[in-house]
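User: Could you check the structure of this?
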Amino acid sequence: MHFLLSALSIVLIDLLLAGDNALVIALAVRALPQRERRVSIAGGALGAVVLRVALTTVAASLLTIPYLQIAGGVFILWIAVKVLTDACTPPDQTPSPRRLWQAIWYIMVADITMSTDNILAIAGASKGDFKLILFGLAVSIPFVVLSSNLLANLMDRFPVLIYVGAAVLGRVGGEMILTDALVTRHWNPTDVLRYATEAALAIALVGYGVARRSYRITT
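Assistant: Sure, the predicted structure tokens are below.
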């Protein structure tokens, strides 16, 4: 019973904290056709889970590594800019293998950099039990894959969701940068500054996307 309750706790943690990850994955694969989307999402999610299992054993030290969250935040913002740049371009029908592997790499890096809270929560709920860690993370794969595919398909039907997603990534990227160990130790930003920065990045990304779209339409 204790094992089952712990396993249920880990699954719920994964489901509750995986929303941002699914959004990043959906944006990363939007430019691929349906079959390649499924392959890249499954491959990237599987690779990310393997890395999470390895990192969970040293989870407590992840938040103390300077520049880790800064690098992750910048990477997330870069994905948002890349997606907005390609927002007016329909998905490729014959993407190169290089682009498919690139999408898998984006998914793995983005998932790991955004999953520090998830890793810490799972490490606490599992109390170091490797079987529980493996079970909980393995169960989360179908959820991430299905939700990412759903979001990518919705973005095809409703392109405005791309801008909503980019705004969310702006918030996530700003939060990651301002909660990095180096930033908090030397500047200790207030909540007001953090929220203002997140809002500014979200607005800036949406503005960039709208300006880019307007430029393409006029030219």
